[in-house]
Amino acid sequence: MIEIAPAKVNLFLHVIGRRPDGYHVLDSLAVFGPAADEVRLAPARRLALELQGPFAEGLLAEADNLVLKAARALAKHAGIAPEGTLSLVKNLPVASGIGGGSADAAATLRLLNRAWGLGLPESVLLELALPLGADVPVCVGSRPTRMGGVGEIMGRAPRVPPAHLLLVNPRIPLATPDVFRARQGGFTPQAALPNAWADARHMAETLRGTRNDLESGAILLVPQIAEVLSAIAAQPGCLMARMSGSGATCFGLFARPEAAQAAALAMPNAWWSAAGPLYEAAA
Ligand SMILES: C[C@](O)(CO)[C@H](O)COP(=O)(O)OP(=O)(O)OC[C@H]1O[C@@H](n2ccc(N)nc2=O)[C@H](O)[C@@H]1O
Ligand SMILES: Nc1ncnc2c1ncn2[C@@H]1O[C@H](COP(=O)(O)OP(=O)(O)OP(=O)(O)O)[C@@H](O)[C@H]1O
User: Fold this and answer.
1) Which atom of ligand 2 is nearest to the CA of 8?
2) What is the pLDDT of residue 151?
3) What digits encode the pLDDT tens for the residues 219-245?
4) CA 207 to chain centre
5) Mean pLDDT taken over the chain
6) Ligand 1 in contact with 151 (CB < 6 A)?
7) How far is CA 195 from CA 57, 159, 161, 192, in A?
8) Are strands 238-243 and 250-254 parallel, antiparallel or unpaired?
9) Band of residue 61 on the pLDDT scale cut at 50, 70, 90
10) Residues 6 or more apart from 80 whose CB is under 8 A from it?
11) Which residue's alpha carbon is nearest to atom 13 within ligand 1?
12) Relative to the CA of 10, which ligand 1 atom is closest?
């Protein structure tokens, strides 16, 4: 059994306030694709995890992978002993602002909910998701979502038009708490969005009126992010370039698939990049 764990991309991210416990209250539009990890399951009496793929190495020293945490949380909720050998194919750079670990945890919840024959509704998976990380709930559905609160409020996103994304990471990991600490400025009001966008151009027009409040702080920590943004913005057909989440991955928005693919090929080899359409989760 295989479950896809698509990358999360924050098309904008406004920090609208702060809770007494220090967590930031956000307004964000999260979409998915065009790159993904994979979680696979093979029968075994005990729970185990194998790591594969181009970014597996960065996780080898990790005592408690989010995949195992998700499996144990689900088993505990169901009152059963966790079993099976999980394999994580790590295609997404680690600590890169596209929710790789969160997507893996969410994919594990979906996969084991099926494999263990639990049949839990999505609402229960969402409850199990939040303690695993602020981005895990949005990754459970992996569909365009307006995120609120600290990640636990799942609002309706505008109808997203066909569009293509380029993702680029300078291969420099960036820890989320450091980026929140480096954030400058006050708070930004919630964004005003339409119910739907006619096309990618229209979507980019609206998004240009929004921002990623973590971008300038992240650039102070990793100046190469500014180079990535300029390189993306300079590509023919690029409608906008911005950092996703807490970085360092940046995205470019394109109307035409060929333009997004050509842009990926134009990126320096030392960087990680991927291009393709927005991911559409099965209904
Ligand atoms: C920046 C986003 O990626 C936007 O989608 C998420 O809000 C972060 O999601 P995440 O990586 O799953 O974050 P977590 O692992 O839950 O939190 C890591 C750390 O980031 C900070 N954090 C996270 C989320 C949030 N709304 N406010 C915060 O201040 C906290 O210091 C927290 O200890
Ligand atoms: N399966 C996993 N994949 C990636 N990181 C994991 C995983 N399990 C545990 N981690 C830990 O979680 C940390 C954050 O990784 P992740 O790739 O999810 O960050 P991110 O892309 O910045 O996420 P976000 O966009 O949600 O802030 C890693 O540095 C690593 O220590």
Assistant:
1) 25
2) 87
3) 999 999 999 999 999 999 999 999 999
4) 18
5) 96
6) yes
7) 42, 6, 11, 10
8) antiparallel
9) low
10) 116
11) 134
12) 5
Q: In a 10 Å sphere around its CB, with 0-12 CB exposed, 13-18 middle and 19+ buried, how is residue 170 labelled?
A: buried
* Average pLDDT, integer, range 18-41: 96
Tokens of 262: 């050509």
Please write down the long-range contacts of 233-239, taking CB distance under 8 Å and 24 or more positions apart.
235/166, 235/259, 235/262, 235/263, 235/266, 236/262, 236/263, 237/262, 237/263, 238/166, 238/263, 239/200, 239/201, 239/203, 239/204
pLDDT at 282 over 70: no
Catalytic residue annotation? 8, 135
Give the ligand at the shortest distance from the Cα of 39: 2
Q: What are phi and psi of 279, to 5 degrees?
A: -75, 135
- 107-121 mean pLDDT: 98
Q: What is the ipTM of this complex?
A: 0.94
What 8-state DSSP symbol labels residue 161? Answer: P
Task: Provide long-range contacts, Cβ within 8 A and 24+ apart, for 136-139.
Answer: 136/66, 136/70, 136/102, 136/105, 136/106, 137/106, 138/8, 138/30, 138/99, 138/102, 139/5, 139/8, 139/99, 139/102, 139/103, 139/105, 139/106, 139/107
* 135 C-beta closer than 6 A to ligand 1: yes
- Which ligand is nearest the CA of 93, by number? 2
Domains of the chain from N-terminus onward: 2-156 (3.30.230.10), 164-277 (3.30.70.890)
Per-residue pLDDT tens digits for 131-149:
999 999 999 999 999 999 9
Ligand 2 pocket test target in 10, 39, 62, 130 with most atoms within 8 Å of CB: 62
